[in-house]
Structure formats: structure tokens, C-alpha cells
């Protein structure tokens, strides 16, 4: 990283810290002056008490049980979205017949929000993990499909022409030209899908759940414990940020030339 890039990263971190600090200060000030009722916006001290309550076993369920319940549902649905969505998007772009068959179905189902599938998920899969994983899969599959489709469709024609002139067969064009060329776009789709999969965890855990961050948020709402709701939301936000940072490092390792272009 050169000096200019390092300075930009430092400035970005400082501005980020300033914005977050300003938000936390405003929260503390508003609640300290009692400008809103604690039920509407709990003070930071109440949220800390809620965190300790969850850490030591809110409704007799320890914090790590909630973490494992949510992360297992998210990873299961996300893995299914990658395993099905990426190949489907690639072959829709590569094979016109597949696009003609699957494309209209995707356009019909795409506008349906994931929570609308909850009743069917319960009927089809029951109230166990399968129904929750299905909801996350539905949410995450769309960006996997669309970005993979776009990645192949945007393959530069000169690359394909050059490979054909060297005698490349269709499978070689796909696996050694089109897919490597479109990998950055595919990875962007996977990053978007990761965020959507994690954001849908609350909807997924509306399918009768006894643990998880969605369970915490919904029970806090039902019991009028807004501090519990805030802790659940904060956990989802912080873990989502951590997963995005981890994914960014994986992306940098797989696509080092993209980092060089960004810094150039």
C-alpha cells in the first residue's frame, strides 16, 4: 500500500469513528435528557444490562446458543445459494435454452420478499432448521444467480475470439475464459448474497425458533423489552460487519489484481 492509499485509509477510519461516535453521543444525550421514553429508545446503560442478561442466559438460553443457532442457519442457506445459484446463473448466460426456461420463472419469483415464503416453509419443511435455511436460501440465491449471469454475459468478445482462433472447445471457453474473466463480478454477487443472507436471519427465525438473534429481537418486542431488541440488532450488525471484513480478505486473496487496480 503506497502513501496515498495509506492516508486515504486513515482518513476513512477517522471519519468512520467520528460518525459512529457522534451517533453514540447523540443516543446518550437524548436518553439522558429523557427526550424520549425508555421503551422507545432505551439508554445505553439499559442496553448493557440487556447484553449481560443475554450473555448469562436470557430465557435460560446462553448467548453462544443464539450465535450458533443463527450462524448455522445463515451458513446453510448461503452455501445452498452458492451451490445452486452460481452454476444456474452461469449456464443461463451460456446456454440460451436454459435462459429461456429458467429466466421467466426467475422474473416471476424474484419480486416475492423472503418473509412471504414463511407459511410455505413451515408447511413444506416443518419448524426445524430446514425451513429457516430455505428462507435464507431464497433471499441469497437471487444475487448469486444475477451476478453470475452478468459475469458470463459481459465476457469480452475479443477474449472469446482469441481463444476460438487457438482452437478452444466450448467447455474450454466457459471454464478457462468466461468464468475466470467474470470471477470479480461473481465474487461481488457472493458478497451481496452474504449480506442479504445475514440480514434475513430475523425473517428466517420467525419460523418457530427457540434460539437465535431473530428469536431475541422478537421476544424482546413481545415482552416490551426494547433493550433486548437493541442487543439483538447490535449483534446482527456487528457480526455482519465482521463477516464482510472476512469476505473482503478472502476476495483480496483470490483477486489480488483487483486490489492493485483500486490502489492504482
Please give a structural write-up.
- The protein has 264 residues and is mainly alpha-helical.
- It folds into two domains: 1-35; 40-263, MetI-like (MetI-like fold), CATH 1.10.3720.10.
- 80% of the residues lie in helices and 0% in strands.
- It contains twelve helices and no strands.
- The chain has helices spanning 3-32, 44-55, 63-94, 96-109, 118-125, 129-153, 157-165, 170-199, 201-204, 213-222, 226-254, 256-263.
- The chain is globular, with a radius of gyration of 23 Å.
End-to-end gap: 10 Å
In total, the number of strands is 0
Q: Count structural domains.
A: 2
Would you identify the CATH architecture of the largest domain?
Orthogonal Bundle
How does the overall form come out from the CA principal axes? Answer: globular
User: What is the makeup of the main sheet?
Assistant: none
Question: Could you give the order of the helices and strands?
Answer: HHHHHHHHHHHH
User: How much strand?
Assistant: under 5%
Radius of gyration, CA atoms, in whole angstroms: 23 Å
Mean pLDDT, as a whole number?
A: 83
Helix segment count?
12
CATH topology value of the largest domain = MetI-like fold
Give start-end ranges of low-pLDDT stretches.
Answer: none
Under CATH at level 1, the class of the largest domain stands as Mainly Alpha
CATH-level-4 superfamily name of the largest domain: MetI-like
Structural class: mainly alpha
Assign a percent range to the helix content.
over 70%
Amino acid at each position: 500500500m503506497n502513501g496515498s492509499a495509506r492516508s486515504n485509509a486513515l482518513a476513512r477510519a477517522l471519519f468512520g469513528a467520528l460518525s459512529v461516535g457522534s451517533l453514540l453521543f447523540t443516543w446518550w444525550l437524548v436518553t439522558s435528557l429523557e427526550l424520549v421514553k425508555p421503551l422507545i429508545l432505551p439508554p445505553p446503560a439499559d442496553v448493557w444490562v440487556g447484553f449481560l442478561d443475554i450473555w448469562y442466559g436470557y430465557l435460560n438460553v446462553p448467548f453462544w446458543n443464539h450465535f450458533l443457532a443463527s450462524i448455522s442457519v445463515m451458513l446453510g442457506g448461503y452455501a445452498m445459494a452458492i451451490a445452486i445459484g452460481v452454476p444456474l446463473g452461469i449456464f443461463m448466460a451460456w446456454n440460451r435454452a436454459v435462459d429461456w426456461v429458467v429466466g421467466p420463472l426467475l422474473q416471476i419469483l424474484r419480486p416475492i420478499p423472503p418473509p412471504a415464503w414463511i407459511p410455505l416453509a413451515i408447511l413444506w419443511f416443518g419448524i426445524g432448521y430446514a425451513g429457516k435455511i430455505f428462507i435464507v436460501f431464497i433471499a441469497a440465491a437471487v444475487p448469486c444467480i444475477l451476478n453470475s449471469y452478468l459475469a458470463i454475459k459481459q465476457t469480452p468478445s475479443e477474449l472469446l475470439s482469441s481463444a476460438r482462433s487457438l482452437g478452444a472447445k466450448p467447455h474450454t471457453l466457459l471454464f478457462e475464459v468466461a468464468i475466470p474473466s467474470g470471477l470479480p463480478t461473481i465474487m461481488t454477487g457472493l458478497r451481496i448474497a452474504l449480506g442479504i443472507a445475514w440480514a434475513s436471519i430475523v425473517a428466517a427465525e420467525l419460523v418457530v425458533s427457540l434460539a437465535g438473534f431473530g428469536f431475541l429481537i422478537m421476544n424482546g418486542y413481545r415482552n416490551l423489552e426494547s433493550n433486548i431488541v437493541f442487543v439483538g440488532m447490535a449483534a446482527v450488525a456487528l457480526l455482519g460487519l465482521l463477516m464482510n471484513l472476512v469476505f473482503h480478505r478472502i476476495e483480496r486473496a483470490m483477486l489480488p489484481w483487483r486490489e492493485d487496480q483500486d490502489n492504482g
